[in-house]
């Protein structure tokens, strides 16, 4: 195998290496001086290239003079280093599963190659494979859990001038999605992926829109606007693609009472049975559990204390004062901060 062929092979197996370093190893392993490696030379090249000194140190600690790690020493490694509680039970199958040498298998031992194969497998992964499925108690009240939440979910870029999109609800669950700015206006075709990443609480910053249709955007900024109804459709389609547990729609509501009614109509008509509209089992003393709320969408927002005052003019809403939560106050402070920043940028 020539140096060029070897380089192509390394690319195929996803091993990236500096050309100068690879050439040095190639020349060292070319014992026959033929500008090509064969059999044992290729094996030696691969071993030198993939050598991990820290793994060698660990293997030497638990292996004998013959370079074999006995089943008993593998148990010690699993217990002391990997902190596996069932090390005695786990060790023998690991030898049978990952040891390439039949001779070592018969001695119920592991060579360095087998040890390396084990470390690179799912069994050697730092992630606990039993946690791939939900293993926690999901029958406690919803308020007993941390919820993976998103802030300004609708933003695709910065919070002052970037575009808004329903795609953002489907793709990320971080505060803001920092990525390349889209040059086109967002549309329904963006509805494709924060919810599929595991986000269970999305934020909707709602404002009055034209034609009596509520819109979503970051208030007092130059961010683009998307229809409230489009976002609700995106939530319906992707809420439970990766998790059956409830989704919370957090409403930061700046809409007039008339457009709030439109919002309610959209949520009930689009979400239908998914929308939780009454207490589970009639209980009002505590939140239902995530288990009870599987497949359900909850709405979180500030309730109005009374209906629109008929004497109001120009469509304004005259509402009684109501206690403001820390969350509402924080949102108002953010709006003021953003408004000031936009004004400063415009100067």
TrEMBL record:
Composition-biased stretches, type Basic and acidic residues, lie in 336-347
> MF terms per GO, please?
phosphatidylinositol-4,5-bisphosphate phospholipase C activity
Which residues lie in Acidic residues bias regions? 320-335
Q: Which reaction does it catalyse?
A: a 1,2-diacyl-sn-glycero-3-phospho-(1D-myo-inositol-4,5-bisphosphate) + H2O = 1D-myo-inositol 1,4,5-trisphosphate + a 1,2-diacyl-sn-glycerol + H(+)
Q: Where is the composition biased (Polar residues)?
A: 310-319
Protein localization: Cytoplasm
What Gene Ontology terms for biological process does this UniProt record contain?
A: intracellular signal transduction; lipid catabolic process
Q: What is its main location?
A: cytoplasm
**InterPro entries in the record:** EF-hand-dom_pair, PI-PLC_fam, PLC-like_Pdiesterase_TIM-brl, PLC_EF-hand-like, PLipase_C_PInositol-sp_X_dom
Give the start-end ranges of region Disordered: 298-347
GO CC annotation, single: plasma membrane
Q: What is this protein called?
A: Phosphoinositide phospholipase C
Which species is this record about?
Bambusicola thoracicus
């Amino acid at each position: 195998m020539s140096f060029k062929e070897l380089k192509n092979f390394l690319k195929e197996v996803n091993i990236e290496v500096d050309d100068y370093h690879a050439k040095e190893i190639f020349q060292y392993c070319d014992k026959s001086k033929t500008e090509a490696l064969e059999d044992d030379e290729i094996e030696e090249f691969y071993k030198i290239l993939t050598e991990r000194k820290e793994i060698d140190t660990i293997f030497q600690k638990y292996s004998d003079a013959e370079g074999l790690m006995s089943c008993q020493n593998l148990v010690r490694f699993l217990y002391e280093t990997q902190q596996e509680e069932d090390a005695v039970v786990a060790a023998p199958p690991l030898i049978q599963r990952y040891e390439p040498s039949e001779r070592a298998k018969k001695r119920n031992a592991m060579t360095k190659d087998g040890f390396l194969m084990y470390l690179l497998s799912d069994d050697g992964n730092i992630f606990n494979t039993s946690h791939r499925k939900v293993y926690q108690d999901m029958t406690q009240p919803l308020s007993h859990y941390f919820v993976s939440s998103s802030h300004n979910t609708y933003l695709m870029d910065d919070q002052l001038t970037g575009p808004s999109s329903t795609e953002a609800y489907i793709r990320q669950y971080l505060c803001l999605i920092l990525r390349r700015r889209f040059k086109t206006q967002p549309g329904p075709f963006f509805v494709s992926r924060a919810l599929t990443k595991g986000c269970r609480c999305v934020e909707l910053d709602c404002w009055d829109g034209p034609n009596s249709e509520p819109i979503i955007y970051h208030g007092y900024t130059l961010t683009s606007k998307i229809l409230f109804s489009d976002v609700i459709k995106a939530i319906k389609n992707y809420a439970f693609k990766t998790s059956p547990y409830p989704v919370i729609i957090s409403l930061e509501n700046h809409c007039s009472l008339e457009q709030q009614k439109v919002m309610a109509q959209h949520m009930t008509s689009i979400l239908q049975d998914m929308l939780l509209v009454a207490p589970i089992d009639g209980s009002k003393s505590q939140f239902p559990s995530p288990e009870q709320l599987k497949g359900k969408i909850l709405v979180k927002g500030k309730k109005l204390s009374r209906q629109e005052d008929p004497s109001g003019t120009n469509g304004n809403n005259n509402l009684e004062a109501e206690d403001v939560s820390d969350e509402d106050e924080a949102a108002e402070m953010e709006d003021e901060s953003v408004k000031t920043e936009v004004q400063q940028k415009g100067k």
